[in-house]
Amino acid sequence: MTALCVLIIAASGFWAVSMRDAEPDPVTDASTGAAQRLADAEAQRMTRPLSGETLRGYGQAVWLNTLARYGAHEAIDIAARKGDPVTAAKDGQVVAVFRDAVWGGVVEIDHGNGLCTRYAGLLWPVDAIKDKAVKAGETIGRVGTPPVEAEDGPHLHLVILAEGVPAHPSAYSLD
Hints:
Number of strands: 12
Helix content: 10-25%
Structural class: alpha+beta
Number of helices: 2
Oligomer: single chain
Mean pLDDT: 82
Strand content: 25-35%
């Protein structure tokens, strides 16, 4: 009887080690991976904060006056009429509201999981209130003209930040 118990324990140990090193099941892993990617993509999805043509896209070369050189545009500029409403792209909490000499009215919303949106070029005063929760589609301000991009006329300068770093809007369905 003892020999049988030792044999069962040894076989169980061998099975556990072989399963640990086994190749993953491609069918199960692929469907689980696809479902997770879909869930991750849906969690990141945003709504466009206003209708309008993309005036300047993410990554385009722009002249940086303050540095006297060309650099990458780390936002998207959406053309609109002065005073058009700008809405939150995703549920979140307003973490910053300020007026800036370079960017005009600015609102920043934290959406959790390291994701933030920054809306610049808004008319002052803005509608958003610091520390207030907002829902996607809720008006946070009105289109103005960012002083640094005044030659482009009224538009929204929208920056998406992932872990504090500007991110391409295509990952969030906004380009």
